[in-house]
């Protein structure tokens, strides 16, 4: 389920390139990574996108959260994790609704319930 999920900067490569999504790092709150809950908020910062990491991966520009983190959880570096975009989308496929085909613009989305078909609805709060 990692097909063409990268979106945003650094998403070169053919559609369906799961290896590309595996090489893109996502900033994720420790609370999200360490629990089984769904992603409740997604952010894209184009200034972060494309920065190389020392492990061969590249920062995607995406950040994911439960949406219930404390200020400390969001500001203390040791509380953040760097899973791959592929891992995030495999864990919560609804994230691809925001990341796939993204236009590289900054933004912040929150999960705002479900539609009449039971699909997640993402509300864009910032640009």
What does this entry look like structurally?
This protein starts with 17 loop residues before the first helix and ends with a strand. The N terminus is likely disordered. The chain has one domain. A 6-stranded mixed β-sheet has the order 4-1-3-2-5-6. It has 127 residues and is of the alpha+beta class. 20% of the residues lie in helices and 28% in strands.
**Individual helix count:** 5
Shape: globular
Spatial order of the strands forming the largest sheet: 4-1-3-2-5-6
Structural class: alpha+beta
Rounded to the nearest angstrom, the radius of gyration is 14 Å
Helix percentage range: 10-25%
Q: Tell me the total number of β-strands.
A: 6
Query: How many discrete domains?
Result: 1
Question: Would you identify the regions where 5 or more consecutive residues have pLDDT less than 50?
Answer: 1-16
Q: How big a fraction of the residues is strand?
A: 25-35%
**What number is the mean pLDDT?**
86
How does the major sheet shape up?
Answer: 6 strands, mixed
Taking the alpha carbons of the first and last residues, their distance comes to 27 Å
What string, H for helix and E for strand, traces the elements in order? HEHEEHEHHEE
